[in-house]
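Suppose you are handed a protein chain with no further information: no name, no annotation, nothing but its sequence. What can you learn? This example shows the usual starting point.
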Amino acid sequence: MLILLPVCRNLLSFLRGTCSCCRRTLRKQLDHNLTFHKLVAYTLALLTAVHTIAHLFNLERYNGSQQALDSSLPAVLSKMHLQGSNKWLNPIHSNQTTVEYVAFTTIPGLTGVIITLALILMVTSSTEFIRRNYFEVFWYTHHLFIIYFAGLVIHGIAGLVRGQTEESIKEVHPHHCAQYLTHKDEHCNHDCCKDPEFGSIPAESWKWVLAPVLLYIFERILRVWRAQQKVVVTKVVMHPARVLELQMQKKGFHMEVGQYIFVNCPSISLLEWHPFTLTSAPEEDFFSIHIRAAGDWTERLIDTFQQQKLEMPRIEVDGPFGTASEDVFQYEVAMLVGAGIGVTPFASILKSIWYKLQQGDQTLKTKKIYFYWLCRDTGAFAWFNDLLASLEQKMAESGKADFLTYRLFLTGWDTSIANNVALHFDTAVDTVTGLRHKTIFGRPMWNSEFTEVAAAHPRSVVGVFLCGPGALAKSLQRSCHQHSSLDPRKVKFYFNKENF
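A reasonable first move is to predict its three-dimensional structure. Written in structure tokens, the prediction is:
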């Protein structure tokens, strides 16, 4: 039941909207949906292993009881099928029956093997390495969940696991009558001389599966319906470092900052849907995404748009769905950290701020934004140079030059870049980006950055937002804990990470 709820994205988006007035800590729990999904999956895998091992031991015990020639209680109960009654207990009725035979010829055994294999494939293909490098493998094997849930419902219907009926327990109680069964006298007239009766224990897994499966089916129907709505690609831009920008329009499409969509290109694959963060602002009359070449599907998509002649390739869109970045304007001070293409949700936020400043929005709660962008190569900075340059100009014109402080970090460079920077060190603009703020070579010293922010805003609640790798997330989360004051009246850092 719990495995499906965290991946019902429309449900989560609805809850995020209804919880907008809830406490921040309660609302933040929705951002851990995939972590919870993985935790439930690993627990399920562990309990499946325990369940399977227990059944194997039990079948061996059944087999031994069937072959036993003594008058022990297990041996006597195992021979009850010889009386021609359907009220047997031991499912093994022959000395030639093996555990393997039961596993592959009975409905519980065969479905158990199938759903266990499906679970193993789903868990092993969900590792970080597979998802990053072979997303298609992860995507297709994860749809084995359909077979898994179907097998789970069927698994117990054959009634292989049996127990004594309630009527029989009242007449032949196992605690009182076991000795009479193993040493039965032909002339016995005691109440315990009756043979116990056994029946199948009814399957109840469907009761736990029905509600979440119906909810998930409704979710999928809604997503399929939305995906069929026409999407018009209005503009295609090819940025440096093989980054494709698609600007699109879709009737009835409404978004918030930091949200993401799932994209499908039927000409490449009918079934593959990939998530991308929206880089446009809610105030714009289009929505856009930036796609970096990072696998077979993205490579083919970029090549398809580069080679298109008269007609644009068809694109299907599902979403948008909510993320942690939606809450950025709930904080007085925000620290935005993007690594590489992870800058995309913050492009949406910065664009929205630009529009709010243009319109003179007085409801904007945020008073200060710190933006950190970490890139390995100089070409990546060209993606949003124009946006940062226009933000610099607009804020200077409106007297809010201190509203945005941004720092660009180049984590990979060669001697030619370093020599060029050294030669033009005294120029007014940066030689790498053309912006007023100079590019910093190396990685941020987060301890110094957090100390500076805490000193500048000693009584503020600071939201720290990250779209980047797990190692950077751990570092930022640790810094948030270290620099948050125990005094509720002083500075407090709240960590938020993109998860989709």
